[in-house]
Amino acid sequence: xxxxxxxxxxxxxxxxxxxxxxxxxxxxxxxxxxxxxxxxxxxxxxxxxxxxxxxxxxxxxxxxxxxxxxxxxxxxxxxxxxxxxxxxxxxxxxxxxxxxxx
Length: 102
Description:
There is one protein chain. The protein is mainly β. It contains 1 helix and 6 strands. The chain has one helix at 87-91; strands at residues 31-35, 38-45, 54-55, 62-63, 69-74, 83-85. The strands form 2 sheets. The protein has a 4-stranded antiparallel beta sheet with strand order 1-2-5-6. A two-stranded antiparallel sheet has the order 3-4. Strand 3 (54-55) and strand 4 (62-63) form a beta hairpin. The termini are far apart.
């Protein structure tokens, strides 16, 4: 008898790729951070996981492909509000003067 390729009942559904508590394809799990600017969800991205360039809102410079960085978004906001930061810019965001893009 041929094997069925249909999912069986009672098993977990498709994996939610935006779930903040799960690692994605080798990317580190998301952590919660508190700061004077609010509560944030932060996910480190290794250099091997950075496949395109991004604009860092902390320094307004480009994060080139292959550069390790962090992705953050407000704890109470949607995942679509996430921003890619240089790791040092994210750590220094409380010491920088206002006026960045984000």
